Prior knowledge:
The chain is of the alpha/beta class. It is 46% helix and 13% strand. It has one domain (3-358): TIM Barrel (Alpha-Beta Barrel), CATH 3.20.20.70. Strand 10 (345-349) and strand 11 form a beta hairpin. Helix 2 (19-28) crosses helix 10 (223-240), helix 5 runs parallel beside helix 7 (156-166) and helix 9 runs parallel beside helix 10. The longest helix has 22 residues, at 371-392. The protein starts with a helix and ends with a helix. The structure holds ligand V47.
Amino acid sequence: MNAIDAIEEKIEASERLDFEDGCALFLEGDLLRLGQLANRVRERRHGDRTFFNVNMRFEATNVCEASCRFCAFSKLEEGSPGAHTTTMEQAVEALVSHPDPRLTELHMVNGLHPGLPFEWYEELLRSFKRARPEVHLKCFTAVEIHYFAQKFSMGYVEVLERLRAAGLGSLPGGGAEILHPDVRRRISSDKADGDEYLAVHGAAHGIGMKTNCTMLYGHIETFEHRVDHLLRLREQQDRSGGFQCFIPLAFHNDNNALQKLPEPTAVDDLRTIAVSRLLLDNIDHIKAYWVSMGLDTAQVALRFGADDLDGTIVKESIYHSAGSTVPMGMTREGLIRLIREAGRIPVERDTEYGIVEELPAAERPEAAMRVRERRAEARRLSVLSSLSTEGAR
Ligand code: V47
């Protein structure tokens, strides 16, 4: 029996896969067979249901003390060209002027700004909540929480409790990069290390706060590092149980110190989604983040183990600074269409996977529009959405 046959038997018996299995899947697995296995597990959990949300991104500041080699978004110092820190008024305006009354989530990630007091972040959250109390605030990566704890001499739980009292709902998964110290030291040496990233999530789970987790792949790491990363997340989930969703993030190589490296291809994206679904047997959702892998690959990923596409976003900065050419945002209708054309059932969710609306499946998924027509439609819808955003300002 070859390695993949043995792994299939384990999957059929719902047995946990180990490090060697993970490496074999990356190195030996035929892509379509891998996709079938992951799809089986995905359908066991979720059937055809595929999740998305109406959300927006916001970055309060791109001033950052850390110097991650993959990052094209941060500016090291206040006052340097392109450095930006929001005012409270601008932040509230961005939320209030969001054109969609169905908005359920604000996802905020920031640089590690050396000059802002902790109270500034508390006031920012309170201002968001006053403006639109119904919107869930998924804000601050574990790296930011660790930075606050060090800078303001607090424990993780104290930081999280104070932010929660000001309106924080959950933590996004950013900042995981590659947890293995040999890689992390080389790409992001001056921020929370892998154990600290996991400890922040453990602290959040300990006080009943949900979080997501990520992996930045396709740069200097090996497949073994990826498997090691996934297993570290799985062990943390065994300990603390609060990860809702895993999001593999494909490296983008524009405007950063790693720009000589090629970017991962669609085959690598699909393989990574599939292996993640198979190894992470204790995390409910695998997200094909359409900004990171592109609309087309994200749609195919819905047959390779992914059950979530993330959301409408409106205006994304991290990937667009690093060369992404996907639209800045998608309309709700555009996401529904992508999901339906993959033959899946669109389910609009809130941040914590509460159901907002379960939509009917397409009547004839086999009559899907041709790819080019669909792309043109998605672009048209996203232009319409940016026009209506501007109109609302
Ligand atoms: O932490 C930065 C990554 C992350 C690059 O929790 C890059 O639902 C590729 O975490 N190429 C931020 N990746 C985004 C993120 C995220 C996205 C969507 C959903 C969720 C969620 C979380 O983006 C960073 C970093 O790992 N990143 N630069 C780059 N050049």
